[in-house]
Amino acid sequence: MKTTRVIDADGHIRETDVLLDYVEPPYRRASLRELFPSDGWDRHLQGRLWIDVPDAAAWLRAMAQGGMERAVLFPTFGLFHSFIRDPDVAVAVSRAYNTYVAEHYRTPRVACSRWPCCRSKTSTKRSKN
């Protein structure tokens, strides 16, 4: 009998204020809510339907509980990245997010979406993404 492989194709990273440590100082804000514009919708459902998965180890535990072999993760606060109007801030946040995700979430069993980093008007660095 064949075994069914289960893949979570719409998991979400729960960005924490640790992400702010990765944002270049001129663009850093006091909280994620200041960094990412919002539409006001409560994606955490007041904490009722949210599993705390702040890093890859926590995702692997949640996957084991749910019988999942692999997961593809997307941002939560980062869904509002496209709402950032200042191109320099958008590039700084893209770099910060990609580094944060690479250091906290990526494993052979967990794939993460990444954001393209373009050269902004004042940026001198170019992303390797």
Summed up, what is this model?
By secondary structure, the chain is an alpha/beta fold. 26% of the residues lie in helices and 11% in strands.
Which term fits the overall shape? Answer: elongated
Q: Could you say how many structural domains there are in total?
A: 1
Structural Rg: 16 Å
Query: How many distinct helices?
Result: 3
Instruction: Flag low-confidence runs.
Output: 123-129
Percent range for β-strand residues:
5-15%
Which percent bin holds the helix content? 25-40%
Question: Helix-strand pattern, N to C?
Answer: EHHEHE
Say how many strands there are. 3
Structural class: alpha/beta
The separation of the N and C termini measures 41 Å
Largest sheet, described in full? Answer: 3 strands, parallel
Give the overall average pLDDT.
81
Strand order of the largest sheet: 1-2-3
